Amino acid sequence: MDYQARLERLRNHLKSLQCEALLIEHPVDLLYLTGLELSPAKLVVTQNESYLIIPSRDFEYALRQTIYPVHLLNENILKDCIVEAQIHQLAFDQNQTTYQDFLALNEWVKNLNHDSYSLELLPLPSPIQQLRLIKDREEITALRKAAHLGYLGYECIVSLLREGVTESELAFELEFFWKKRGGSRLAFDPIIAFGPNSSMPHYRAGSTQLTPNTLVLIDIGVVLAHYHSDMTRVIFFGTPSSQMEAIYSIVEEAKEKALALCKPGTLIGDLDRVARDWITAHGHGEHFTHSLGHGIGLEIHEPPLLRQNGMHKDISLQPGMVITIEPGIYLPKVGGVRLEDTILIIENGYENLTCLQPE
């Protein structure tokens, strides 16, 4: 990963915000900027300087791995760095900083200012997340590889379907399969749901055994080199009921309508609306109970949230965004259908990462 390029992007972003310096503490944002899994740690970035402050247990590890000057965490190090760089305005992520941490930071600033130094705190809404919204080339490569491994896991599950197998047995075999092939961990607990269990969007694999003529919903994801995959498929083990076959067709068409709008300039709200309107027009609006999708990358759920009335509804799709498209219909105690692909927005439309071979 080109961490120097990410640092320069951050500095340009801070310049556009007229921000003198930024304090970064969230572990995923630190991972994005440094490539290191650190907690607790602090990174202070200005236009000319940067200070990575970490505990002693990670000191040697960081010295060998990072482009940033490394400083040992102690009681006075943050103050020393602030004063050395002559920082008088320190921004922080208002969406990641807890109230308790803010109070502590504010008290620290009061004490610093009491020592004849002037420092102002500036809250910013998710400044690093705004950078992470657009994936760079190396991130896209990593996401392709994760999606490919995820799809191989799906094929593994399908190969193991047989009468009497349980949902939890399939989940166990899936994790074993992925870890043998380099996956570091599950992106989330696998949702492997037989029959009526599939009507619960966040169901977790249990002891239900597979019987003939049963719907099987498979929602799975793996983490590979820090990046996540996410996909959902529904298959019929035997002959589907006419009701669930019809539901499948409606969801499939809703997904295709959303995919047709996956191109630069489309508003997030419009993406959700076209799929939701189709499902509503077929009498199942109340059975589509979640957003159309979400961003994905270093976290399984990242901005933007694909919802027509959500906080990101007026964001336009841009090349480099990676999102999921996952409409669903859930009939309580009957069954549910969700179909999900991971999509990369490109200059002239989209690429479906879920079924692609890795680069």
Please provide a brief summary of the model:
This protein has helices spanning 3-16, 27-34, 59-65, 77-84, 99-114, 127-132, 137-160, 167-180, 242-260, 268-281, and strands at 21-24, 42-46, 50-54, 70-72, 89-93, 120-124, 185-186, 191-194, 214-220, 222-224, 227-228, 231-237, 293-295, 302-306, 322-325, 328-331, 335-338, 341-346, 349-352.
Number of strands: 19
End-to-end separation = 15 Å
The level of helicity is 25-40%
Shape: elongated
> Strand percentage, roughly?
15-25%
Q: Mean pLDDT across all residues, rounded? A: 94
Q: Within the largest sheet, what's the order of strands?
A: 4-3-2-1-5-6
Specify Rg, calculated over alpha carbons: 23 Å
Order of helices and strands: HEHEEHEHEHEHHHEEEEEEHHEEEEEEE
Low-confidence segments, ≥5 residues, pLDDT <50? none
How many strands, what sense, and barrel or not for the largest sheet? Answer: 6 strands, mixed
Architecture overview:
The protein has 359 residues and is an alpha+beta fold. Helix content is 36%, strand content 23%. The protein has helices at 3-16, 27-34, 59-65, 77-84, 99-114, 127-132, 137-160, 167-180, 242-260, 268-281; strands spanning 21-24, 42-46, 50-54, 70-72, 89-93, 120-124, 185-186, 191-194, 214-220, 222-224, 227-228, 231-237, 293-295, 302-306, 322-325, 328-331, 335-338, 341-346, 349-352. The strands form 6 sheets. It has a 6-stranded mixed β-sheet, with helices on both faces. Strand 2 and strand 3 form a beta hairpin. The longest helix has 24 residues, at 137-160. It is elongated, with a radius of gyration of 23 Å. The two termini are 15 Å apart.
